Amino acid sequence: MRTVIHGGEILTLDAASPMAEAMVIDGDTILATGDLSSMLTVAGKGAGRLDLRGSTAMPGIIDTHPHFIHFAAVLGMCVDILDAKNHDDIAQRIRERARTVAAGEWIITTPVGEPHYFTRRSWRDLAEGCLPNRTLLDAIAPNHPVMIAAWGPRIPNVCAMNTVAMRRLGITASLPSRVSDVWIEKEPDGEPSGIFRGSVTSYYNPDPFWLSLTVNIPMPTADDWNRGARLGQLIANSRGVTAAYEGHVMAPEHIDAYRLMREAGESTLRVMSSLEAAQYGFDYGLGLSEEDCRSNFALALRLRSVQDDLFRINGLTLSRGGPCWPGFLRADKTIRDPYGRATRGHTFVPQNIEREAIEFCLKNDLRLNMVQGAYQDHREFLESLQPFLSSYDIPSKGWIMQHNILISPETIRRYAELGFHLSTSMSFTWGKGDLFAERIGRDCLSDLIPLARMMDSGANVTLGSDWGPARPFEHIAFAETHEFAGSGHRNVQPGMAVSRLQALKAWTSSGATLMNWSGIGALRAGYKADIAVVDRNPLTCDNDALPKIRVLKTMLNGREVYDTGDLSLVAKVDLPEERRSPQVDTFARAAGPAAWKHICGPACSHSARASAGSMSSQEVQ
């Protein structure tokens, strides 16, 4: 069926015709864009209509570093207390879970606040100003081990457990108040209170004592990853995202979860994945060996599949270091770890494995995706690459450099010459800007996510959400302001800020180029009908309004995969409830409840239709 989309602005991101009055789609394809009269003629009699009612249609967002499956899987196995207001609120949610799981099974909750930096809201904002200790947790669930988790990337952090959990882990009064970099809060009688501080995060945690405990705490299972792939895609759709490059921390079970969704015909997102050669995010690389890495080289080659319309696997990912917060960032000079100690960071994978990865990818025409944090990563990679430059046409390979948190002008120019795609996230400026200034020194800020410098080099530059905030439009605002979450400092130095159009392209057409996926990233004739409908034009609205943009509808291949009910598409097939509710994006709650309030449409079957009710994340699952 042909459908005419009209009644608002159509932002095509097609250089030949950037704006249109109307657009015609036929099935999964865009037929044409132009003035309404012409498009009605193209559509012909009997075509359906989608009246935008003043909203804006734009290409679906392409997130090139989202971790959709990882965050959603962890969320799915936890009791969600991200938006809890007080201890009673937390207690009610834990009790609900305790009624559904057998005695003795773990109950793990999310932290309180806004993932994953927890800067704008955290446990400090509970009415009581603190997490509940073991006394309250014991009363809530006396027959289950309970843990209120701390998520990365913040260290020091805080978490809480009840008595059953502490006994299960061997935490007793005999332990001192500090073990390694974990502080155990004690009650007057010397018993642990259930509150733990310091290096207590669930991932990217180097503390040997905490690691010895967490091997006994449940991790996501294959079923959790499968549910995470499903929930992660729904979260993506609620943000207007129609395609994602999942190239970091992707283990075989994560790739398999996306594959199973595709085989079941349940994909609502185009995904391209790349297998990670060395996994260390959850266990500090315990047991990681060079032979494991080499085995993953071969597995990445066997997994390669680039023909499917919705799910593709192409590449080998390698990351030798990690984030700054726990002290992992590989530095050329002495910096400070979370506790003020001198460090040069931590290297998980030796340089010889990097050289072998380069050679393997060149010999097998496999795409290499490097995750690079700072100067030492870049310098050593270019050293590793040097011996191959005379024998291989590196610029033709289209390799990817992700993160690029601290990167010099000279390195940017060299990557552009070598044909690398540069992918990064404003998350690192927003969430870690103050951290870099404190740990490394303010002189590094001139090289902190220099977006304009990257784009001016001629390299293809893309953006992703990574650690958060959750919503791409807020990241687009940060591309102009380079704001630090803690201090509010705006790091707008030469080579930093980009225009709104440049930022939008980095989230759409440039992402399609990085994924080497033709026919997406713009609204033009012959392209796939991957469309996000938003309540205002992100190209022309004020910067302060960008984070408040509401996604009203998301379409993949011309099929609705998310809908608030605000706009009715003639002859549309009703969506399942889970794809209607804006509350599917749990991570975005902190952006403001009003922005995510569900407005029931004519097809809505909610029992609370008259009062515009919405689903909880538990209902989504």
TrEMBL record:
GO molecular function list: hydrolase activity, acting on carbon-nitrogen (but not peptide) bonds
Domain of life: Bacteria
Keywords: Hydrolase
Species per Swiss-Prot/TrEMBL record: Bradyrhizobium hipponense
Gene3D superfamilies given in the database record: 3.10.310.70, Metal-dependent hydrolases (3.20.20.140), Urease, subunit C, domain 1 (2.30.40.10)
Record bears the keyword ATP-binding: no
Protein name, as recorded: Amidohydrolase family protein
Coiled-coil intervals: none
Limits of the Amidohydrolase domain: 51-562
Stored Pfam families: Amidohydro_3
InterPro entries (alphabetical): Amidohydro_3 (IPR013108), Metal-dep_hydrolase_composite (IPR011059), Metal_Hydrolase (IPR032466)
